[in-house]
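Annotated sample (chain length 184).
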Amino acid sequence: MDGKRFRQIDAPDGGCRVGPVAISGILGVTILLWVTDSWHGIAPAWVALGAALICALPVVGVIPFSDLLQKVNIEPIFFVSGVIGFEAVVFHSGINAWAGVYLVTMFHEANLSSNTAIFTSLAAIGSLVAVCTTVPTAPGVVTPLAGQLAEATAWPVEWVLVAQRKLSWSLSKHSLPVNRKSRS
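Output written by the structure step:
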């Protein structure tokens, strides 16, 4: 690599630049945290989000401050952290366990025998969750329930997941606003 691409502190454009050693250090710590997640308990998604935020800090200088404001869209970072946070709240509050017990009981009492009725019920559950939460967070809520619902319906887990997401995905394609601005 040439010396012009990575300069040390006080770059002419007003930002700080770090060398490849610093970026390698951030990546190394990130990989180390991913490998040891069972030991420290921090989910890999949070580690990745933290590494991305560290790299985006103007003080670190991976991205010049002027580019951060003008060229980088940071909205997806907040959106992804919101989705991950929502799923963590649902899991740790016990809502998904309560919903699983309720839904399994409902399937046993309904005694659904036809595949069409089972598919319709699972698709309705997925759609209801998507409407009550948001479409992107729905998989984080319904996926942990797939094993319990597969036992209740006698379907494979893969079929349950497809049924839960089918109708909610079609809802999202037809009802969510789409940004139609052309990006250059």
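Annotation: Confidence is low (pLDDT under 50) at residues 5-12, 174-184.
Annotation: Residues 7 and 141 are 46 Å apart (CA to CA).
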